[in-house]
User: Which sequence fits this backbone?
């Protein structure tokens, strides 16, 4: 720069030596300013792109005044969510062990915790994470850009993720299976193809298969498929993927390929299939033969041997019956249904059937099917934000990585459900209620570094008893 005073040039030279990088001097209205120069390669324009960063000013006499750094005044205290995030952190110890050789491990653990806590769009993940006390102990970069990088990297590592599934699978026991699909309008995803949804409509979708263990009630694997692939083909692929397992499948009322059950029998693969209300497999005359308790309510049952498909289990739930009767009586009142038609349908109100090759107590089959419903609800809850996140999931690898995180989050979710089952609280308290109650357990961190828990509501103290070995109820001041 011409006519620049020598003191300014001397100071500029000193700055260059100290910074050990390119420095640019600019003159703006007779004032001199120093800027760092950065260059990076732009893949789209295939050219080097220059960026600058202001670092300070230089007076005419050569005095350098560095840019003043913004200082943030810290509050005297910071209050963090403590209970639910710390519980999930304790429950993630096996995930911390099995993911230790994967890249972005901290981000994977943090993402699984936040998704179990509060399944929200990716753009909201970082503030949710930073509100937890756990974020002060586990450093993770959860900016949207870095989350996209993490998901894409993990989604590309298919062999490594299947090794992860293997390491998390228990020895023995059955793997139960669920298949769902998600609607996608993204033009960038090859996985999104036209296929039939449960309503028999052709839509652009991605199919997701999930397997979980009946011995631990935890998810053991997840996979993503093209939306056009038929369910039975996905089912066969899953069987091939886990050839050494004692596999079983739980299907909902949308499954109609009953002849395929005969093939499963030949291959020694177990199944539990929910029958449609109008299924011809439900006999015209049947009598309930016993009662068991589930979730503090009584359920009647009967068990019938079929000629081809194993056993038919029929259940009568009084709560479902009351709901159904009220709905159909409403139709009678509106003139949509006659009283005679109501009486004909009344026999099957509150009754549903399960078909299985398993020769076990009816309560066992009933509970395993109910677990499937719990999985559906949790899975739906966690996958619903995929469409909102499509701007961050611009490729198939990112979608696969996304569902690896959903899988890890579901393992944490079902570990809580596992503990509730051990305490006979299933049907009494939900996992979401547990997380909500424990979120009221707040950690107060003073500016001095002192930490202590706030006073706890009675219901939070009660639920803490279920997890007292993982989350001790200590309210003392800590250093």
Assistant:
């Amino acid at each position: 720069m011409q006519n620049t005073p020598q003191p300014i040039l001397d100071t500029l030279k000193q700055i260059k030596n100290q910074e050990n990088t390119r420095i640019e001097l600019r003159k703006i209205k007779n004032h001199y300013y120093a800027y760092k120069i950065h260059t990076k390669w732009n893949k789209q324009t295939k050219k080097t792109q220059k960026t600058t960063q202001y670092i300070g000013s230089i007076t005419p006499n050569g005095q350098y005044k560095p840019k003043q750094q913004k200082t943030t005044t810290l509050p005297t205290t910071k209050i963090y969510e403590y209970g639910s995030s710390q519980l999930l952190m304790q429950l993630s110890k096996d995930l911390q062990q099995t993911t230790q050789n994967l890249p972005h491990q901290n981000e994977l653990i943090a993402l699984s915790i936040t998704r179990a806590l509060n399944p929200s769009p990716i753009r909201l993940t970082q503030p949710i994470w930073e509100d937890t006390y756990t974020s002060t102990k586990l450093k993770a970069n959860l900016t949207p850009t870095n989350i996209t990088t993490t998901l894409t990297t993990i989604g590309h590592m298919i062999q490594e993720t299947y090794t992860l599934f293997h390491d998390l699978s228990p020895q023995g026991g059955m793997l139960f299976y669920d298949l769902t699909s998600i609607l996608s309008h993204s033009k960038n995803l090859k996985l999104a193809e036209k296929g039939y949804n449960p309503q028999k409509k052709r839509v652009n979708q991605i199919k997701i298969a999930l397997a979980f263990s009946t011995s631990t009630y935890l998810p053991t694997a997840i996979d993503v498929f093209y939306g056009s692939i038929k369910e039975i083909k996905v089912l066969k692929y899953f069987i091939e993927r886990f050839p050494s397992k004692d596999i079983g499948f739980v299907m909902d009322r949308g499954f109609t390929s009953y002849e395929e059950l005969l093939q499963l029998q030949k291959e020694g693969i177990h199944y539990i299939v929910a029958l449609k209300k109008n299924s011809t497999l439900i006999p015209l005359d049947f009598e309930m033969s016993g009662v068991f308790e589930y979730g503090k309510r009584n359920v009647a049952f009967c068990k019938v041997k079929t000629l081809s498909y194993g056993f038919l289990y029929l259940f009568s739930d009084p709560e479902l019956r009351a709901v159904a009767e009220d709905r159909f009586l409403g139709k009678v009142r509106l003139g949509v249904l006659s009283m005679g038609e109501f009486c004909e349908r009344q026999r099957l109100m509150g009754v549903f059937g399960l078909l299985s090759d398993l020769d076990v107590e009816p309560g066992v089959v009933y509970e395993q099917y109910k677990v499937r419903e719990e999985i559906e609800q949790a899975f739906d809850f966690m996958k619903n934000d995929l469409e909102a996140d499509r701007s961050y999931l611009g490729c198939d690898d990112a979608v696969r990585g996304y569902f690896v995180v959903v899988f890890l989050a579901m393992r944490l979710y079902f570990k809580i459900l596992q503990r509730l089952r051990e305490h006979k609280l299933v049907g009494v308290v939900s996992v979401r209620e547990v997380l909500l109650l424990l979120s009221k357990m707040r950690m107060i961190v003073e500016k001095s570094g002192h930490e202590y828990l706030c006073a706890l509501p009675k219901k939070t103290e009660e639920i803490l008893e279920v997890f007292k070995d993982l989350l001790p109820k200590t309210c003392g001041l800590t250093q």
